[in-house]
Amino acid sequence: MDIEDKQTLLQNSIFSDLPGEELAELARTLETRVAQPDEMIFEVGDPADAFYIIGSGQVRIFVKHKNRAERELTVRGEGEHFGEVSLMTGEPRTANAQSLAETHLLVASREQFERLIHDYPELSRKFVREIRGWLLEDEKIIEEEAEVLIRSSGASWFDFVIVLGVSILLAVAFNFLSPNGISLIPEQPDAVPAISASQAMNEYSQGKALIVDAMPNNFYRLTHIKGSLNLPPAQFDILYMASFPKEDKSMAIVVYGSTISAPYDLETAGKLLLRGYSNVRILEGGLKAWEAGGYPVEKKVSR
Hints:
- The chain is α/β, with parallel strands linked by helices.
- Helix content is 43%, strand content 21%.
- The strands form four sheets. A five-stranded parallel beta sheet has the order 9-14-13-10-12, with helices on both faces. The protein has a four-stranded antiparallel beta sheet with strand order 1-8-3-6. A four-stranded antiparallel beta sheet has the order 2-7-4-5, with no helix packed on it.
- The chain is elongated and about 65 Å long.
- The model is unreliable at 170-189 (pLDDT under 50).
């Protein structure tokens, strides 16, 4: 693969904002690799040492469960890329990559990838937005698979609640008996001020406050305050980097989403406070209080 071909390949949506001289430099320095059909490019647990762009051929990304059943996550083709997730998280590979045919690859080392991310922050944001899309799509797939499992097994949601309850009781017992037990409830800030639904609506309607929904995405999709930003604690870091307006740390933020079993709003509010936001408040009464006031919400449309 000559330099002209490399540079053409680099002019995809991810690298479109890089200056021409940077693209030319990448084209000169990136290595090439040819993977034979069915060759494992990397496997779960391998160190994250490279980022790949496909010149020709196809690569499938998959995971293998303990019972040896495989789940294919995606298939990447010409002009597409893979391998960035572990490079961005700093963790070993969490999936396998295998060529489906003879595949020609451009390979960026970890050092090259980290330099690009450091020098061009917009490149990092593009990767994060892409990963965010995968997370939300995976969550939908898992939700659908769970529903299929319940219907096919004859089990009910009540059965799953019982299993969850027993698991929690066992976890509590373990933590009580073990001197090295792990806290089941994450540390929260000492106090986060509350705001009434009417006051929050007044500030929101005047554009003086951003409303954040801290519930998991599947709950957010069912119903949420109109215009709210979904920022659940479990996906906080990814979603924060992808879509949160970070310019003004004094901006007013109203967080809602508390439940008895998991105080999502407190956890998300605490994370925002740790990020330096000084005007964070909890919506008193949550979504129910907002709806009771007749304020605008968005609900999932039934098919």
